[in-house]
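Late entry, iron/sulfur cluster complex.
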Amino acid sequence: MVPTPESSAGNGSLAPGGAGSAARNVNGSGPGAGGPVANGPRSNGAGAGTATVAAPATSRKDWVSDQEVKWCPGCGDFTILAAVQMLLPEIGVRPESTVFISGIGCSSRFPYYMNTYGIHSIHGRAPALATGLAIARPDLDVWVVTGDGDALSIGGNHFIHLMRRNVNLTILLFNNQIYGLTKGQYSPTSETGKVTKSTPYGSLDAPFNPVSLAIGAEATFVARTHDMDRKHMTEMLRRAHDHKGTGFVEIYQNCNVYNNGAFEDITAKENRASNLIPLEHGRPIRFGENGEHCVVRNPDGSLRVAEVADVGEDAAVIHDEYLEDSSPAFALSRLASGPHEPTPIGVFRDISRPEYSEEVTRQVATAQASEGEPDLKSLIFSGGTWSTN
Ligand code: SF4
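Prediction complete; structure with ligand written out below:
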């Protein structure tokens, strides 16, 4: 569960000016009651009318917990942790107003390493807990950290409903195409034919493409990045966090123990120019050492890679993140069948749609205005009951 700020404020792990003197919520609506709150960009404005003051600036060390990091040396998770801890001071949020929620798996140890509130929850269920928290406490900055097994197998159901609801939170999917914590079984993103301890003759499953799945589930913000480029990753995290609604980022993450090199065909420095397709809004989709490759549209709407010399400068598709129609973003997500051929990275889709917790808050207020304060007892005895023999 989420500890009260009072219980964490005295843990001494924040630098002077940290939790003990931090900005707090003045509207008395939550555990932070007692002082002004400094809402970050994630706030949906439910605290409108409350006084605000500028929050003291934080630095990276304010976000680093005192817990020993127990990932394997060389794991891609370290890059992601560093990127998040370096980004948060920049975006004006506070540790005592931030919550990281995870499920089960290597990536799900993430909340331990953040000096924020955290919930290390049930396998695949982080989206459910995060949805409840984001609705009940819209003043908090809620993040979900999950892996390919956690989000897409055990939690597949919760994942797709989070996407379609557009709850105000940021979700990071560490995709290493393997179950690492349980020592190397194939996951929902492992390639067909993958030989693991649980698939000794090769996996027969068609893998999920997380970006396609998110877009198909009506996600409003979808991006992909990788653990070999912290600058790009940081920008994707910032964009996802700034998005109003669910910001989803798939991160190609190397598990150097059980699936080493899974992404090196596209993420190794020598392969990036020829195999990473950077998506930039409003610009032709081109890549290659000298921009000699491009993405063009087929008559049936699908996309393919072509040579600029063959199709001409004007044939390249112009990337548009803001299209309401999800088909172009979906077609982009289908361009590569796996991380061994030219693969797009960047923001696939960024559209605006009503945010779920605002809608819930509005609906409850409207119902209370017309029907008065709720009465649980009268609801229970309202007649919709029956007896069985
Ligand atoms: Fe990282 Fe793999 Fe080790 Fe897990 S098993 S900590 S994913 S290297």
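The two ends are 39 Å apart (CA to CA). Will revisit in the morning.
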